[in-house]
Amino acid sequence: MNYQPLLNYMEQHIQLTSEEKSLVINRVNHRKYLRNQYVVQQGDVCRFESFVLSGCLKTFYVDQDAQEHIVMFAVENWWCADLGSFITQTPADYNIQCLENTELLQFSFDNLQQLYLEVPQLERFFRIIIQNAYVATEKRIVRNFSLSAKERYLKFREQYPQMEQRVPQYMIASYLGITKEFLSKLRGQLMQED
Amino acid sequence: MNYQPLLNYMEQHIQLTSEEKSLVINRVNHRKYLRNQYVVQQGDVCRFESFVLSGCLKTFYVDQDAQEHIVMFAVENWWCADLGSFITQTPADYNIQCLENTELLQFSFDNLQQLYLEVPQLERFFRIIIQNAYVATEKRIVRNFSLSAKERYLKFREQYPQMEQRVPQYMIASYLGITKEFLSKLRGQLMQED
DNA sequence: CTAGCACCTTAATCTAGATTAATCTTTTTT
DNA sequence: AAAAAAGATTAATCTAGATTAAGGTGCTAG
Known about the structure:
- The structure is a homodimer.
- By secondary structure, chain A is α+β, with helices and mostly antiparallel strands.
- Chain A folds into two domains: 4-146, Sandwich (Jelly Rolls), CATH 2.60.120.10; 151-194.
- Helix content of chain A is 50%, strand content 22%.
- Chain A contains nine helices and eight strands.
- In chain A, strand 4 and strand 5 (68-75) form a beta hairpin.
- In chain A, helix 2 (18-27) runs antiparallel to helix 4 (109-118) and helix 8 (169-176) crosses helix 9 (180-193).
- Chain A starts with a helix and ends with a helix.
- The interface between A and B is medium-sized, with 28 and 28 residues.
- The structure holds a DNA duplex.
């Protein structure tokens, strides 16, 4: 099993001895999902905080009118969970579904509590993860408030350049909060411009 | 000085001995602000995490077109800070300004680091604060995505019933992400309906 | 090879909410 | 009490983006 990407990621924020690393590795579950499988379903408690080794996932919300709203994508070296649900162990607002065959390293809630005792530095690590998630979410609110659909799309393209090749346009539209038809129109306009 | 509201709030999440309580009280600054004073300005580093003893504040963002976007209000027993800035000690995206004369209990970044050593339980407490902030922010994204302006307004009214009397309508409009004229129209419609 | 499905585009029409501008009301200042 | 400033309403017009509907492209499967 390849734990290196996770350990590399962790070492960006904390230093771990090799004993600590093996404690982490002991508590983490490796799991493969197939394309279209769900990692979390709206209404269930989110049981894992997952690190993406390979593949691609979407986190989305289904509203009363059965409309899907994508709130984030996750690819290699990203974390993915309904953090609100995981943290409080209450039912999830979001679904998380694989867009490709996907390999995850998963921390269950209980294992994570254990690990906090075994490797106290992880308290710090996961606080940073939550903080980053929080800051990113806040920035997204600001962006949705103050930018037009076209500006949001351009920002998305520069921020996730690989993403457009990887996921269908109607999902990008959903992420941007617009219809696929309007995204198509914007793309038409942008082609024109250059 | 009246520290009781803060201690009550803390005791909802953690238990503190009376020695620990005095450690907290020793590290917290009490400060009065006048109406219209700024607690944080966009571009400055947010120096405090503040607990509201009395008064009312708005957290807002000014975009390129000098438009103000209110992201949250804070009243008695709420926390207020540009958490993203405070946590990372980097320049703030938001302004925080008093809408009334306001009394705050403030934790400076350095004092808080000290306190984490003196009262380790506070690590837990402030993680919970951040988690709650995160969850609230996430729910807000979902709401902005899937509800119409009218629905958001109704939700706002039921969630912050006291607020409408306390802050001018054009600020509520800004919080809801609509113009004051349109809010006025909605209010007209709703009067009609009942 | 063609049927079917998943995805994308284009164009016409519609609507929630923005903009502008004028008037009215309430609060604050002097 | 008058004047000024701050806030709220109303109505006409405008626009970003939604909706509907039809046709196009390209993959995958029998």
